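Can't attach files on this board, so I'm pasting raw text. These are the components:
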Amino acid sequence: MDLNSQETIKRLADEHGPDHLLVILGAPDPESAEIAAETVVLGDPTYAGALAEAQLGLSVYHVLEDEFRSQIADDVWEDQIGVMADVLEAEEISAAVRAMRERKGEGA
Amino acid sequence: MFEGKQIIVLGERDGIAGPAIAACVKSAGGHVAYTSTECFV
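---
Top answer:
Structure tokens for the assembled complex are below.
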């Protein structure tokens, strides 16, 4: 994950508390979704950024998960996400992020 | 899902970009605290 993003997430967690943050991912495949989710749940696996060894345990979802999709009006979804929802491997991506949520004791 | 939360949007260039996700969140009444579009090469 981008180092600037890691620094900002750490600052927001310090300011608002981890329980008040929600991370939404737009990763293109299960592997990158898993790494991004791991970074905000268990810490940066590459030990390169501000979230190294920071087990924030943040709530994290991918855009294509039903929990997020169900919150968005159909017309907005079509305008903003549209065909990408059909192109990406939604089921595999969702499973990867869900698995990471379960590692912090949350999720379906 | 969004109530009382600060939303962090981590989009990706090859997936779904940050501003598109942020627009969805805002349309549903969520408060976006940070948006990025990352690029893995």
